[in-house]
# Entry
Amino acid sequence: MKVIIVGAHGEAKELINRISTGWNISVIDMDQDKLRNFNPNRQIEKYQGDGTSTLVLKKAGIETASALITLTLDDEVNIEILKIAKSHKISRLSSVINDESNIKYYDELEVELVDPNILLARRFEQILEPRRVVSQAFAGGRAEAIELEVNADSPARGKKLKEIGSDYFIVGALLRKGKVVIPHGDTELQTGDLVTVVLQSGAFGNVIKMFSGSESRFPLEFGKNTAIVINSEEELKNLTEAEFYTRNTKAEELVILSQESIFTDSKEEDTTTFEAILKDQKFRTENTQKNSLKEIESKLDELSIGTLIIPVTGEVKTSTIRSYINFSNKNKIPILFSRGTSPINNIGFLSSSDFSENSPTTISFDIASTLKSKVFAVVVDQPKFISHENTESKKSIIQKLQDAALSNEVQLELLSEEGNEAKIFTSLTDKFDLSIIGHNLSTTWQLKKTKEYISKNSSSSVLYIPI
# Structure
């Protein structure tokens, strides 16, 4: 994602050295010498010119920017730049404020403000009354305390403190469901824990990655293996996608569910053919009578299936899709409707407010992080004459999506459309190698039909996540 910083000042350099590598950074300043000597510890783009110039801002990338920060010493200049950014629908706007009498003008633009006077006062307050003040920086600036939330995909989640202990940080306290917990070595961290971490200066990035970063887990929350149903010779081509999917997730083994013989001529054994296609991929075969859903259901626990792969080789009936989706919801097993669109370079999903542990959004970022794929979040609005959209809620969802992209270090693109959700998303699936959708049992029948429509008509393979 792109952030534009106007003002090549010391605070800009410190900020650049601290934020995620997921940001592409442009810095604008009028002073050519200042820009020449502005060299943070990472690659940035520099633009000499007037930040209030639309031309200069376009060169710096305002048309694709997700955030803009103004650091000039003139509030009028800052406000003018922010107005231009606002007109380009940039949702993350922030600035220093030089004169508090101008707050109302910043507020009109919904700008997050930083007051340097307050920051300095807090630091001096700490020096004067160090035992009373709880502050981020201490030990002469050589250490700091920060609060971090343990994410669903955090490498620290589910681990005991003694398992992640380090010489450069300690966990001093955590807030869990409104209660303060003083942790010890056997304290196991849970999703949603707000931890207070004391760390050495310079260890900031490592600590952020440990507690708020991401670690691929899919599909282990559902089962450790993947299984593909093979009923005919035509479906053998889907084995390649099954291999790719198994190899590039946390799945341990591929299970092939097939009848006694799928070849009409029976010139060679099925296993010999499977080995030729899968090469060095670990797999095992499980012979079945009819490969019926009832028969597969009886084997789920024994085989520890985390994803069931269903080849889609031609026209498929809606009733068949509905049966598999119902099976998925009942048994809490993801279904991959395989159309052979691997390798997976682009992943698309319908954006929603659900960022829970096994939501389609979280799993999309999980898989994209492992594969280094690009993620497309499709935001579909109802037509304005029937929409009751909460603008603030939509803005919050977009910011959470951006945060998730940064946390997982994947590239995110938002696709915003208006109209019928099912038809719009399906029309976009030719851009994706994998489409990820999910279902909530409390949703309306219209949304259920949306999932069926996408699964049936998608151009790409579709991963259906039961919730």
Summary: The longest helix spans residues 391-408. The chain has three domains: 2-119, 136-212, 215-467.
